[in-house]
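Narrative summary of target 7.
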Amino acid sequence: MTPGPRNLLTDVPGLLVGNASDPRLKSGVTVVLGEKPVTAGVHVMGGAPGTRETELLAPDRLVSEVDAIVLSGGSAFGLDAASGVADALRLQGRGFAVGPARVPIVPAAILFDLLNGGDKDWPQNPYRALGEQALSAASTDFALGTAGAGAGATTATLKGGLGSASIRLESGITVAALAAVNALGSATVGDGPHFWAAPWEEIGEFGGLGAATTYPMGPPTTKRGPAQNTTIAIVATDAPLTKAECTRLAIAAHDGMARALVPSHTPFDGDLVFALSTGRSSATADPILLGHAAATCLARAIARGVYLASEEPGDLLPTWSTKYG
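Modeled conformation, tokenized:
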């Protein structure tokens, strides 16, 4: 098993990703677009989620496919990004057909970045426009670190960011992950530079430092404000999966979040994972191997998001590279 050619979510054929952000706002939006509708599931393990249309993704609900997924900063204000995406997709003729009408299916999740030092005194909600911009930027290549939904993200000790990683299985199936890392806890061990996700690192993608030699035994480091958090993520594969199988993939992927962030899934995080299947591969999928690959990719994506964050004016926390690089 090796990373895909880009080591990005878009190594899964049929997916595009677009980012939009505002440095003054210190926030942004990431859109994952299916070239055609894709099967989706979701699982929430954090105690404080902010979502749109996630109930629709339950295996017993009517609609089985989505047009796009939106990850956004802005707390509840950021849910408006999905409206901008849905409006633009409708104009493109995308969406669930209801007679002559088309209703784009655009589930979304948000993270809290309202207290990160950015200018939040806007005259009107900026996230609808950011959603449209992110959709128009959708491509196979996209920025990581301080970009998109990770533009204003933070962790307990360092700036967070947008991360992605992929892996190609021996069967030819591709599995990948994308994460906007805004955790209550920390992605690094104690006061050092080593990532909790180090055992799963590939090709030195977040520094190649290996695992820490000692681990703190006391209480984990967390943010001072319990309402300033949430890591939101997407895992995807080209293996053909049903909604129920996508839901199981999202559940398994949460293991990767727990491997990369300490603590995770707290009452003050809205930790959530969407799972997508484009169905482009004809290979037989082993559900156990798919779940393991999704968790591994998500752990790597989280570490990469923190590792690649860049320094900007007004930051309240250092980046990994500023502190350790």
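The chain has one domain: 9-324.
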